[in-house]
Design goal:
The structure is a single chain. The chain has no helices and eleven strands. The protein is mainly beta. A hairpin with a 4-residue loop joins β7 and β8.
Length: 118
């Protein structure tokens, strides 16, 4: 099993910045990909950014504004968000995808609220 704990959400004005953190624990060796998803009220959960061993991927709506990174020494994944817009308001979830070699599957954090408003 893998446990994920997010932090760093909050209220920020349009144009501001926030950094989300996701601390991993448990069978971290089994994880091959990490990502951040978000879900706004009345909408489906969507992928925001993902990182494996190669280049990160981003949703078109956040390219150039958000950066995902992974600190292997601290077992933590970050999402640096800049130039925030009201439409970025959502609950943000950290995701860890386990290798099929270890049985596959997804693990999720509890979510952290990000509100962009003046």
């Amino acid at each position: 099993q893998v446990q994920l704990v997010e932090s760093g959400g909050g209220l920020v004005q349009p144009g501001g910045s926030l950094r989300l953190s996701c601390a991993l624990s448990g069978s971290i060796f089994s994880i091959y990909a990490m990502g951040w998803y978000r879900q706004a009220p009345g909408k489906q959960r969507e992928l925001v950014a993902a990182i494996t061993g190669g280049s990160p991927d981003y949703a078109d709506s956040v390219k150039g504004r958000f950066t995902i990174s992974r600190d292997y020494a601290k077992n933590t994944v970050y999402l640096q968000m800049s130039s925030l817009k009201p439409e970025d308001t959502a609950v943000y979830y950290c995701n860890a995808r386990r290798s099929t070699y270890y049985g596959g599957g997804d693990f999720w954090g509890q979510g952290t609220q990000v509100t962009v408003s003046s």
